[in-house]
Amino acid sequence: MSKKDKYAAAVILIIALVAALIFLPAKKGKRVVVLFSGSGMKIPVEEIAKDFTASTGIAVDIHLEGSSILRQYIERYGEAELFLSGDKENIDILAKKGLVKNRAFIAWHIPVILVPEENRKNITGLDDLAEKGIKIVLANPKQAASGKLVYEMLQRHPNGKKILNNIVVYGSSTNDALRVFKERYQKGEADAVLEWDIMVHVPEGKGLTVIPFDKKYEVKDPLMLALLKNSHVSEAAQRFYDYFRTEGIKAFKKHGYNTEAKR
């Protein structure tokens, strides 16, 4: 099986697993809002949902996975009520298909090089990642927003092909990429992971340090929240959407995200 076929099979499998979880029966008589979120935002998202439930009594059912996987699920099944994507493009795709009722900017996602502190002297920028023998971990560009944004940037970098050739493994999501990197680093099988800068503030990124991309190749993408048109409990979903884009943004800022709307 080719690498392309393996990626396609992995995408289909994950969508099927997400579908199985979504179709589990809800608790009878309980108001529940279904939120799909990119996995890298787990900590602020869970905090926001907990606070919202405490103040309103409305439960939030959170499903975490790579943003592209979640978007494909929404396109096929349309069961989610809100979608927090790690990149704007996934929201744009759904909007073009008439699936988005409203959307709001939450924060910026900025990809960088993450390395353990002791490895910082060996990797100082993107050009170092092109050196022979360097081993890189990246979230799958077909499944996760971080991987997609980095992959697109590398298409215009003069050493992009060499850097891509040094990728030894793809994670299925941001959290999975961090998990895989830490496992491989301990075995001497990885040197750096390309991920969001904010990941140094979560448990999975503990001990990692940020090396920004060279100025010319810096990229960032707006983290967007969409209220979807196929909401089955529209009043509750609208309340959570309004809460998220006010109180929720404060939580993201507290956890280190850049929440200023200007580029």
Topology of helices and strands:
Blueprint (H helix, E strand, L loop, with lengths): L2 H20 L9 E7 L3 H15 L2 E7 L1 H11 L4 E4 L2 H9 L3 E10 L1 E6 L19 E4 L5 H10 L5 H6 L1 E5 L2 H13 L5 E5 L11 E4 L9 E8 L5 H21 L9
Parallel strand pairs: 1-2, 1-3, 6-7, 6-8
Antiparallel strand pairs: 3-10, 4-10, 5-8, 5-9
Helix pairs in contact: 1-3, 2-8, 3-4
Describe the structure.
- With 263 residues, this protein is α/β, with parallel strands linked by helices.
- It folds into 2 domains: 3-109 and 221-254, Periplasmic binding protein-like II (D-Maltodextrin-Binding Protein, domain 2); 111-217, D-Maltodextrin-Binding Protein, domain 2 (3-Layer(aba) Sandwich), CATH 3.40.190.10.
- It has helices at residues 3-22, 42-56, 67-77, 88-96, 145-154, 160-165, 174-186, 234-254; strands at residues 32-38, 59-65, 82-85, 100-109, 111-116, 136-139, 167-171, 192-196, 208-211, 221-228.
- It has a 5-stranded mixed β-sheet with strand order 2-1-3-10-4. A 5-stranded mixed β-sheet has the order 7-6-8-5-9, sandwiched between helices.
- Strand 1 (32-38), helix 2 and strand 2 (59-65) form a beta-alpha-beta unit.
- Helix 2 crosses helix 8 and helix 3 packs parallel to helix 4 (88-96).
- The radius of gyration is 19 Å and the shape is elongated.
- It starts with a helix and ends in a 9-residue tail after the last helix.
CATH architecture of the largest domain: 3-Layer(aba) Sandwich
CATH class of the largest domain: Alpha Beta
Q: How many beta-strand runs?
A: 10
CATH topology of the largest domain: D-Maltodextrin-Binding Protein, domain 2
Work out the radius of gyration: 19 Å
Low-confidence stretches: 20-29
Sketch the topology as an H/E string, one letter per element: HEHEHEHEEEHHEHEEEH
Strand arrangement across the biggest beta sheet: 2-1-3-10-4
Q: Mind describing the biggest β-sheet? A: 5 strands, mixed
**How many independent structural domains?**
2
How helical, in percent, are the residues? 25-40%
**Could you say which overall geometry the principal axes of the C-alpha atoms support?**
elongated
Strand residue content: 15-25%
Put simply, the count of helices is 8
Measure the end-to-end span: 42 Å
Task: Provide the structure class.
Answer: alpha/beta
Give the overall pLDDT as a whole number.
88
The CATH homologous superfamily name of the largest domain equals: Periplasmic binding protein-like II
